[in-house]
Amino acid sequence: MDAKMRLRMAIQDVQRTEAAQPALSSRRSVFFGPALHRRSESPLGRQDRGRSDFVTPTPRTIGRDMASNADEQKTCPLCREKERLQSFWRNPDFFRCDACGAIFRDPFPSEEALKDLYERSWVAPEASRAETGATDSGVADAIAGYLLRSTDSPSFAGKRILDFGGGLGAMAAALRRRGADVFVVEPFGVDYLTGRGFKAYRFLEDIPAEFTFDGITSLEVVEHLPDPTAALRQLSARLTPGGWLFVTTPNPEGLNAAVSGSSWREAEKPGHLLFFPAPTLKLALERSGFEQVERKRWPIRFPNAPVIKRAIHFLLQAAMVDGSVRMLARKPAPDQGASALAS
Ligand SMILES: [Zn+2]
């Protein structure tokens, strides 16, 4: 066995650990709801559409997709670039946008196929964790701790925090344990999360407008969104000035993706519409009005993994080629960033 083969096997081993371990990167949820019912609107609601110079006011709705519009010109779902697009992976097919760096599925699955996938998953959410959310509670707790430290607070008491794409509620529970008043958005999991005692909503726009948030977490969600920039802008609109947003997404520049190509397990999941190399996610956040955007190198441990696998994780994270891109961003406060929000 040559060195490359051994490396590949080690990585696949780590992948299996992550999959079995309910890591961050296997959490799933979807935000197609409003798009399914109100096609002309954004996936998240009615607000603030098309103000971005990053997104034109008339983005393609999913479902009316490239498969059924073969002669329609291919367009980057993130920045609307039409020219500088090149094939990136085959089978499943992904393209890379040379303008913004996004790597996107082509075509997107139909709305009906995705809705069906998620609805079936939520019939038995605990048995369908690959789709409904598999964040390990220990990992969620570690993230909550890092977020507290980064905001210089002893606890989240008195803070209202939204977990956007709550899955089965692990992150929401970790935030609640640290004192936060937690709201959760999860299109197909409202009943389940309500049963766990959370204030759960199908869509962002369903949360009464008087509620704004000191912080928002969104773990492994943005890759599911057909129009991520619109979503990020709508999240920004619900933050108090100076509030923070923490986002994670699968890392297409990680070692797993590099070695596996189109058989990367994240690329094989039909709900994953686009991937963000770290600079692309930073750009998307900045163009959605956020500032102080930082990639976080917090070491995330997988407490039940064997020592050797934990060591590999540690090395991959240190080299920033692990399975997840984690970023923390701020909404500008009025005195320091008003110009950044002006359109
Ligand atoms: Zn692009």
From TrEMBL:
Gene3D superfamilies: Vaccinia Virus protein VP39 (3.40.50.150). GO terms for biological process: methylation. Keywords: Methyltransferase, Transferase. Residues 38-52 have a biased composition (Basic and acidic residues). InterPro entries: SAM-dependent_MTases_sf. GO terms for molecular function: methyltransferase activity. It comes from the Bacteria. It holds the Pfam family Methyltransf_23. The keyword Amino-acid biosynthesis does not apply. Residues 38-71 are annotated as: Disordered. This is Methyltransferase domain-containing protein.
